[in-house]
Structures are given as structure tokens and as C-alpha cells.
Design brief:
This protein is α+β, with helices and mostly antiparallel strands. Helix content is 16%, strand content 30%. The chain contains 2 helices and 4 strands; from the N terminus they run E-H-E-E-H-E. The strands form 2 sheets. A two-stranded antiparallel ribbon has the order 1-4. A two-stranded antiparallel ribbon has the order 2-3.
Length: 61
């Protein structure tokens, strides 16, 4: 199981993470990225890689 976390304070609202997520785990709301489907995370780390502000983290549990 993978756990995606978004640090809202660091999020710049670019939407890169949400646009690139193949599992549809992330969504833009009110100009910030939010985790909406945590159980769909594939653990691919695409969101972590594309986030320019380092706001997205991924852990395996």
C-alpha cells in the first residue's frame, strides 16, 4: 500500500501532479492539490517527480 501526502503550504497550485497521476489519486481544489482517491495509488512516484515545489511525498506502508 502506498500513501500520498500533499503539503498544502508548499503546493504552488500548478496542477502538474494531478495531471500526471495515472491512478487519479490527486485533484486540484481551490487552487491546491488534494489527495482524493488514496486507495488508487500505484506507487509510481510520478507525482513526486513532477512537483516543482516538493509538496508531494509518497511512502510505502
Amino acid at each position: 500500500m502506498y500513501v500520498v501526502t500533499v503539503d498544502i503550504e508548499k503546493c504552488e497550485g500548478c496542477g502538474e501532479c494531478a495531471d500526471s497521476c495515472p491512478g487519479g489519486v490527486l485533484e486540484m481544489r481551490d487552487g491546491k492539490c488534494h489527495v482524493v482517491n488514496p486507495d488508487e495509488c500505484l506507487g509510481c512516484e510520478t507525482c513526486v517527480t513532477v512537483c516543482p515545489s516538493g509538496a508531494v511525498t509518497l511512502e510505502e506502508r
